[in-house]
Each structure stands twice: as C-alpha cells, then as structure tokens.
Amino acid sequence: MCYLKEEDDMSVLDEIRAKVLATRVIASVDQGMMKQFKLSENQRCIGMITADSDDVTYVALDEATKAADVEVIYARSFYAGAAHASGPFSGEVIGIIAGPGPADVTAGLERAREVIEHEACFKSANEDGSLAFFAHLVSATGGYLSKAGNVPRGHSLAYLIAPPLEAMFGMDAALKAASVEVATFFAPPSETNYGGGYLTGSQAACKAACDAFQQAVLDVANRPIDI
C-alpha cells in the first residue's frame, strides 16, 4: 500500500517520505454532493487531499480528526499505486474530511499535511529502496482509525503494511511477539498490491508488534529464498 520509490542514496531503514499532491476546500458544498456523501447539516464544508502514499495518508486523516472538528467522510486507495496514477496530482489515495466551516476543515488539512510530510512514513528494507514497509505505532486513535479498526477512540494500534509475503510473515511474527490481537486484516493483494493489518493492544504491546514486524520484513529482505 505504498508508492514504491527507488532512491539513489537509500540505505536499510531509511525513511521514505510521502508527498501531498493536491488539496482543496469547498466552503459550502452543493446539496447534491451533501446527499452523495450523506453529510449532516453541520458538515457544509469539505476538504480534499491526495498524496502518493495511502497508508501514511490514512494515519494523517486520523490525526486530522484529533486536531479539528472534522470527520473523515471518504478515503480510498487507487488501484496499482501511485506509479500508475490517473493524473499528476492523483497519487495513490484521496481523502475527504467534512466540518462545520472552513476554519475547522483547513486546520484538519494542515494537520494531515504535517503528518504526511514529517511524521508517519514507510521505511526501506533494502539498500535501493525497492522494498518498502510500514510499521507505525498509533498511540491513540482518532475518529477515523477507531472506526476502521473497530476499536474505542483513543486506543493504540500497530499499523502494519508490507508486500504480500513479507506482510503475512510479519503479521505472524508481530502477533507472537506481543499481547495484541488482529483488529483489521488486509489480505493481499490490496488495491496497491500490499497486505497487512491493524493490531490492537496496549501502547507498549503495539510498539513491540511494530518492532517484530519490522524485523520479519528485514529477514525476508536479507534471505528471500530461504525455507
């Protein structure tokens, strides 16, 4: 679920930073659009964002719900990933948030952008950046990931994503390493040909699960055809 990027000076565990590609705020959305998105009367304003990494963006959208009076009303990955995007500003994902007015929605988008560009990120599992994975600790969920993971708001999650085999190997390792449970499972292939899931437990347990997942992915990267 990542825009796989091969970088010139990439090393193992280097951060692969995502990019925001486009944003727009509609101060007063048309009634026809309100009906399509099933918005309430106090959700007259919407904000849209696209980026080149879907999982990073989902974390960012969740953070937006904690930073402002907004709700994520739509968030979808595009098929095949950002390398096969439909346009230069499409990327890998679109997220739409709604709130009572432009101030809240703008604040939500600004927080999302901050997370995408400076906080949550994929990492490289090999020297050229051609194998990327996401092992991100969500210390306390907001409105979006709480619903997606079917956990109470404020709960901790280990958000784990990798290519198909690496993801399944890593998920098993993460579950064995800590007192966590599967909250959501992404069987490969996803829209972007990745897999993984959300694991739930205490913050310490979720951190241990992230570490175990990372180590499992690195193990596959180092010895891919060992049985």
From TrEMBL:
<feature type="domain" description="BMC circularly permuted">
    <location>
        <begin position="10"/>
        <end position="120"/>
    </location>
</feature>
<dbReference type="InterPro" id="IPR009193">
    <property type="entry name" value="EutL_PduB"/>
</dbReference>
<keyword id="KW-1283">Bacterial microcompartment</keyword>
<feature type="domain" description="BMC circularly permuted">
    <location>
        <begin position="121"/>
        <end position="224"/>
    </location>
</feature>
<dbReference type="InterPro" id="IPR030983">
    <property type="entry name" value="EutL"/>
</dbReference>
<dbReference type="Pfam" id="PF00936">
    <property type="entry name" value="BMC"/>
</dbReference>
<dbReference type="InterPro" id="IPR044870">
    <property type="entry name" value="BMC_CP"/>
</dbReference>
<dbReference type="InterPro" id="IPR037233">
    <property type="entry name" value="CcmK-like_sf"/>
</dbReference>
<dbReference type="InterPro" id="IPR000249">
    <property type="entry name" value="BMC_dom"/>
</dbReference>
<protein>
    <submittedName>
        <fullName>Ethanolamine utilization microcompartment protein EutL</fullName>
    </submittedName>
</protein>
